Amino acid sequence: MEAEIDGEKLSDEELAGIIVLLLLGGMDTTAGLTGNAFLRIDADPALRRRLIEDPDVPESATEEFLRHDTRCRG
User: Fold this and answer.
1) Domain residue spans in the chain?
2) Alpha carbon of residue 62 to chain centroid
3) Which of 14, 44, 49, 59 is in Cβ range 3.0-4.6 Å of 10 for a Cys bridge?
4) Nearest to 1 by CA among 21, 17, 12
């Protein structure tokens, strides 16, 4: 909130714009990850079973979904 550009503090309007962009970027990333993960899980019954049966898998699976399934599948 104390950021400066060329020695001048950002205005409230500039700060609000930055905050909105950060929020929208976070929501879009989360929605994309969730949608692509559901598509992948739906297409792979063995993966679905493994996610349900092993409580340690979902954490590492999230990283793999981010790494492997980042493209949009509209």
Assistant:
1) 32-74
2) 10
3) 14
4) 12
Tell me the HSE value of 45 on the side-chain side, using a 13 A CA sphere: 0
The confidence score (pLDDT) of residue 72 equals 53
Using one digit for the tens of pLDDT, what is the confidence trace for 8-58?
899 999 999 999 999 988 887 888 888 888 999 999 999 999 999 998 888
CA angle 58, 59, 60 (to 5 degrees): 95
Instruction: Return the HEC string of 7-40.
Output: CEECCHHHHHHHHHHHHHHHHHHHHHHHHHHHHH
Look-up of token digits 């399934």: 69
65 in Cβ contact with 37 (< 8 Å): yes
CA dist., res. 52 & res. 56, Å (int): 10
Please, which pLDDT band fits residue 69 given cuts at 50, 70 and 90? low
